[in-house]
Structure formats: structure tokens, C-alpha cells
């Protein structure tokens, strides 16, 4: 066949030859090249952005300017549309977007859809989003007051969580501001100490405080479910029945019980009047205190204490209480019991792990005597030491004022160094501890578990250890973030400036250390009361502690 045989012509229906037809080639798609915000290229996410940024979006082809408004949407995290102007550079391959003034501490998204066209009619190959988080507004949100007045204000506002929001039946502290009838045992111990502070500061009268304490102690004595004298992590505030914390944590929680007893013994020492009401209150507190079978939690006489026991699962969680963490108070009280005490070997082996809880390494130039790498979350330094006075306190393993100051300083220094480049971390904005995080989560934040979330309780409750650094943080939280973080019960739980996320939650175990350790910083009230317990003096001495307060 010759070349002519390779070609053919189509025919019309009447058999006539027609002109050959050829398919129209598709219009080429095009791609996104880069983004710049205020002249900086950082991929698709930008933090600490000012209120009037200049955003340049560059593409691999000239674009159709007529398609921009319908294909590039600028919105806030709440879905509010942001108006913007657009101009074009580099032969229309770069769109320069200037939005109307943005709000501070807000997350925005620029969504570019495949509806964006090139000047030749091609479509953007794939959609993408540019994420912006705006910077902190440096203007004070509240009038400036003296530091002393600010400390009083924070204490008084935080006190409302335990007083105004105290459970109406039991008087105990609810787990969080959305918990209805779920009571936290440990948080209630912190709340009982807060009631003592409230009376002493004049937020309520002594008679009011006594009446609330009678309600609380009566409920614990007559209604609350216990196991060998120990309380569960959570209780129902109406019935006193267990609310399981988890599947196997549906019985005794010895650590939570120790926080409750820390508060009750402090209140016992405060309500020391000779009248019948205060005398009876002390008697009832002693009944609760003496009922705790600390020694039973050695699980058949072992030289350690166990955290949980369940009526359904017995010891199956098998969690020993070992240092260094938040549970020193558990061993102190176990040794201090006059009815069910434990000997020093249980502390030495179970808590101190025969010295293995020692650290001794240096972080940011600060030597840490005890505990995990870089100290762990700051609640390790708070919960036990709302009652135990660390000043001048030593044993075979550490000087506890040195330990707590080192822990707090390492946490502070880490946030100032800010190795993860989290927005806002600074000498004024620091503090990593357990708290709520975005999307309904919870994290025990620390330098080795840093998810970008700051919790005000971390820095504020460290006031006895890092007064200058903690006071700077408290001022920052109140004056600079107060429009986002200050609520009816004081500071909300936490925030993440990378995503401009602010918790709306209050947690008893975070609120309590704020009011309680501010008071210890100001007056030493709770330390003085708890350390005045004769049983505590005897128990701590039996473990080898020495202190001017013993």
C-alpha cells in the first residue's frame, strides 16, 4: 500500500467527501508555586502574623484575574468571610492579597480552589489552604493594679470555682465546669484548702466556711463510697457512689485520697475553736483520716504502695506509687497515720526506689536533684507541696526547696529557649503541666512532651519557687490575654497561640493550686497549718526528713 492508502476521507450521508476533523487538545492545568506572607516564605502555615499582612500567592502560569474572587476565599476559624483586595504581579502569575484588618489572636484560612483559572483557561491542578494565626495584641485588657491587688483578685476569682460552683448537695469540688454531679476527690482536697484561704482572706466568713466544711465532711463520712477507707478518683456528688475514672479504676485511688486528706488535715488545724461545731468537725475529720488503711495498699505486705484497688478487678492495674512524681504526699501521710502507718522501708523501696529516683543532671544550666529528664510536668512540684512546706526540708535524696525551684526554673528556661518555635513562648508566657488541649484532648505537657499548650496554673502555682518569673507570667495572662483567658472562675485552663485556641474549661485540680500556692507564697498559711499536724511531724521524721518546720 502506498502513502495515499494511509489516508481516508469521511463522507457525508449523501456520500460526498468532507474535510477531515481533529480533536481539540485539552487546555493544560497549572500548579501553585509558592506563598509569602510579609515577604517570608514558610510553606502553608504562618504564625505571629500582624493585623494587616501582605500575602503573595505565586503560580506556574498567568492566571485569569476574573476567576480570583470566586476561587480564593479568606475566612476566619468561625467561618466569617474576610474582605480583601487583590493586585497582580509577574505577568499576572502572582496574586497579592491584602485583607481588611484582621483580629488579633485569631486563626484564618485562605482557601484556593481548583476553580482558579489560568489566562489560557486551564484549571489549578489541586486545591490548597494557607493557614494564618495572628499575633498577640499588646494593649492591656484591664486597668493596671498593684501586684498585691492582682494576687488578691486572682485568688478571689478562683475561689468562686470552689465556693459558687461547689456541688450543691455535697459541697465538694466538681471535676470541671461542665461536670454536673461528677466530683473529684483530689480536687476537693485542694478546694478544702481554698475554703481555708477564703475564710482567712475575708472572701467569706468563718461561719460560712465552717458550714460548708460541715456539709463536705458529713457527706464524706455518711454518703461517700470508700474501700478500706480510701476514696475513689470520682464520686457522684448526690449519691456518693463511685463514678469510674476508667474501666479498672472504679474503686480506691490512694493518691487522690491523699490529696483529700491533705486538705482535710489542713482544715482540721484551721478550725481549732473550742465550740461544739468546730470540735465536732475535727472529730469527724479524724474519723475519715483514721479510717484510711494505708498499710493495706502494700498489697500483701510488699515494700511499696499501690495506687488503685478495684472491687471488680482487685489489684489488676498493678500500678505502684513510685517517685519522682506528684505523689510524695501519699507516702508522707501513710507514714503519718496513727492507725495504719507504713515503715520507712516502704518509702525507701517503693517511693525512692532505693535512690533510683535521683537525677542529678543539668538542664539549661540548672541541676535537677530528682525526677525525669527536664523535670516533667509542673504539677509534680505543686500537688504534694500545697501542704508540705519544702523550705528547709531535706532527706537522704534531696533538698526539696532546691528540687522545686530547679524544676520550675527548667520549665521556665525551656519555654524561653522555645526549641519548637511555638508562638508566644517567652519570659512572660510559660508553664507546661497537665491540662486540656485542643479538640477535646488532655496532655501532661512538659519539656519532653510539648504540644504548644500553656496552662496558667503551671507558672502561677510556681510562685513560691520562681516569684519573679511567675509574677511576670501572671501579669501577662491577665493583662495581655485577659479578654480570652479570664472568666467567672479566674483563668481558663489553657491556651495554644499557634492555633489561637483558648480553653473554656476550668478544672478543679488546676484551679486549686492557683489559689492555694498564691497563699503559700504570700503568707505560708497552708504550709503552716499542714505542717503543724502532730502526726505529720512524727511521720515525716520517721521517713528521715529534717526541717525547721518539724
TrEMBL record:
Signal peptide: none annotated. This is Glycoamylase-like domain-containing protein. Residues 1-23 are annotated as: Disordered. The keyword Signal applies. Coiled coil: none annotated. It comes from Mucilaginibacter mallensis. Residues 321-534 form the Glycoamylase-like domain. Keywords: Signal. Residues 48-134 form the SbsA Ig-like domain. Pfam families: Big_5, Glycoamylase. The keyword Repeat does not apply.
Amino acid at each position: 500500500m502506498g502513502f495515499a492508502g494511509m489516508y481516508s476521507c469521511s463522507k457525508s450521508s449523501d456520500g460526498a467527501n468532507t474535510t477531515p476533523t481533529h480533536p481539540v487538545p485539552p487546555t493544560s492545568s497549572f500548579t501553585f508555586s509558592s506563598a509569602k506572607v510579609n515577604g517570608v516564605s514558610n510553606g502553608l502555615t504562618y504564625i505571629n502574623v500582624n493585623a494587616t499582612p501582605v500575602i503573595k500567592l505565586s503560580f506556574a502560569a498567568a492566571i485569569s484575574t476574573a476567576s480570583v474572587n470566586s476561587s480564593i476565599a479568606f475566612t476566619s476559624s468561625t467561618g466569617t468571610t474576610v474582605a480583601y483586595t487583590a493586585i497582580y504581579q509577574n505577568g499576572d502569575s502572582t496574586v497579592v492579597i491584602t485583607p481588611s484588618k484582621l483580629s488579633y489572636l485569631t486563626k484564618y484560612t485562605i482557601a484556593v480552589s481548583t476553580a482558579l483559572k489560568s489566562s489560557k483557561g486551564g484549571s489549578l491542578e489541586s486545591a490548597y489552604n494557607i493557614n494564618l494565626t495572628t499575633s498577640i495584641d499588646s494593649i492591656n485588657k484591664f486597668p493596671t493594679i498593684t501586684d498585691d491587688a492582682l494576687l488578691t483578685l486572682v485568688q478571689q476569682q478562683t475561689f468562686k470555682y470552689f465556693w459558687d460552683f461547689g456541688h450543691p448537695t455535697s459541697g465538694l469540688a466538681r471535676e470541671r465546669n461542665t461536670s454536673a454531679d461528677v466530683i473529684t476527690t483530689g480536687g476537693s482536697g485542694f478546694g478544702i484548702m481554698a475554703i481555708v484561704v477564703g475564710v482567712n482572706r475575708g472572701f467569706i466568713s468563718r461561719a460560712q466556711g465552717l458550714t460548708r466544711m460541715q456539709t463536705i465532711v458529713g457527706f464524706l463520712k455518711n454518703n461517700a463510697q470508700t474501700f478500706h477507707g480510701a476514696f475513689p478518683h470520682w464520686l457522684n456528688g448526690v449519691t456518693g457512689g463511685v463514678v469510674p475514672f476508667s474501666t479498672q479504676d472504679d474503686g480506691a485511688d490512694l493518691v487522690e485520697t491523699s490529696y483529700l486528706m491533705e486538705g482535710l488535715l489542713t482544715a482540721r488545724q484551721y478550725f481549732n475553736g473550742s465550740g461544739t461545731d468546730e470540735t465536732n468537725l475535727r472529730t469527724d475529720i479524724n474519723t475519715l483520716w483514721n479510717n484510711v488503711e494505708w498499710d493495706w495498699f502494700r498489697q500483701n505486705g510488699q515494700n511499696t504502695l499501690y495506687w488503685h484497688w478495684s472491687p471488680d478487678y482487685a489489684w489488676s492495674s498493678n500500678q505502684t506509687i513510685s517517685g519522682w512524681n506528684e505523689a510524695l504526699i501519699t507516702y508522707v501521710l501513710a507514714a503519718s497515720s496513727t492507725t495504719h502507718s507504713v515503715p520507712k522501708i516502704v518509702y525507701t523501696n517503693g517511693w525512692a526506689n532505693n535512690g533510683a529516683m535521683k537525677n542529678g543532671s543539668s538542664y539549661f544550666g540548672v541541676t535537677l536533684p530528682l525526677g525525669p529528664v527536664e523535670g516533667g510536668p509542673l504539677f509534680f512540684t505543686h500537688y504534694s507541696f500545697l501542704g508540705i512546706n519544702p523550705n528547709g526540708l531535706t532527706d537522704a535524696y534531696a533538698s526539696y526547696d532546691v528540687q522545686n525551684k530547679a524544676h520550675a526554673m527548667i520549665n521556665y528556661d525551656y519555654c524561653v529557649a522555645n526549641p519548637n518555635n511555638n508562638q508566644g513562648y517567652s519570659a512572660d508566657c510559660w508553664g507546661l503541666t497537665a491540662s486540656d488541649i485542643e479538640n477535646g484532648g488532655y496532655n501532661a505537657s512538659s519539656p519532653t512532651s510539648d504540644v504548644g499548650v500553656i496552662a496558667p496554673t503551671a507558672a502561677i502555682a510556681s510562685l513560691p519557687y520562681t516569684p519573679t518569673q511567675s509574677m511576670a507570667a501572671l501579669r501577662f495572662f491577665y493583662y495581655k490575654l485577659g479578654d480570652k483567658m479570664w472568666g467567672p472562675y479566674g483563668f481558663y485552663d489553657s491556651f495554644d497561640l499557634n492555633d489561637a485556641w483558648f480553653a473554656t474549661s476550668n478544672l478543679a485540680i488546676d484551679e486549686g493550686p492557683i489559689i492555694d500556692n498564691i497563699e503559700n507564697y504570700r503568707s505560708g498559711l497552708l504550709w503552716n497549718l499542714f505542717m503543724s499536724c502532730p502526726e505529720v511531724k512524727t511521720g515525716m521524721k520517721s521517713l528521715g526528713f529534717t526541717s525547721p518546720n518539724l
